[in-house]
Write a structure and sequence with these properties.
Blueprint lengths: L3 E5 L2 E5 L11 H6 L12 E4 L7 E3 H17 L8 E5 L6 H10 L3 E4 L6 H11 L1 E6 L4 H11 L6 E3 L7
Parallel strand pairs: 5-6, 5-7, 7-8
Antiparallel strand pairs: 1-2, 3-4
């Protein structure tokens, strides 16, 4: 397809020939409450474990996870709009639930790779001023080192467990 070119002085603007209407919705409303998304029924499987597809998360479960975890993040951990929450997860079935819940709680998601060193992760936590650390169960030891290095107050970790996805 050819682009539409618009010249403004020394500036050239390239536009696609077809435009797409972008609804004025926040991300979560767009994903879960958008009337134009007729494929998203309550029993639609959104995420499945590659090794065991019977372990999956449906739209209804995802919505429940979002509401519960966002509420927990705000009420039990005191996270407020504009705070940062640090997330370190391996390929866990609840990764999308965690990311979207942090957004639903009004916070910003700050991420680290699980292969990063404790010093690097502690530096990232310090730079983002994260108030909470969420990790998968296999990273508890790494997350513990990071919390100690950054001297985050105790009780600021949530461990995401596979047993909690139903």
């Amino acid at each position: 397809m050819a682009s539409i070119v618009e010249k403004r002085g020394d500036t050239t603007i390239y536009r696609a020939p077809n435009s797409v209407e972008i609804p004025s919705l926040d991300l979560l409303s767009f994903l879960f409450e958008n009337p134009q998304n007729d494929r998203l029924k309550s029993d639609t499987i959104l995420h499945a474990d590659a090794a065991d597809p019977s372990r999956n998360v449906t739209t209804a479960q995802q919505t429940s996870h979002l509401q519960r975890l966002a509420h927990t993040i705000r009420t039990q951990y005191g996270i407020r709009d504009g705070d940062a929450v640090h997330v370190i997860l391996t390929g866990h079935i609840l990764c999308p639930s965690v990311f979207l819940s942090v957004i639903a709680a009004g916070a910003t998601v700050a991420c680290s790779l699980p292969t990063s060193s404790p010093v690097d992760i502690a530096r990232q936590i310090a730079m983002t001023e994260s108030k909470l650390l969420i990790c998968s169960p296999d990273l508890k030891a790494l997350a513990g080192e990071d919390v100690e290095l950054y001297e985050v107050k105790s009780g600021t970790q949530i461990h995401v467990s596979s047993d909690e996805h139903s």
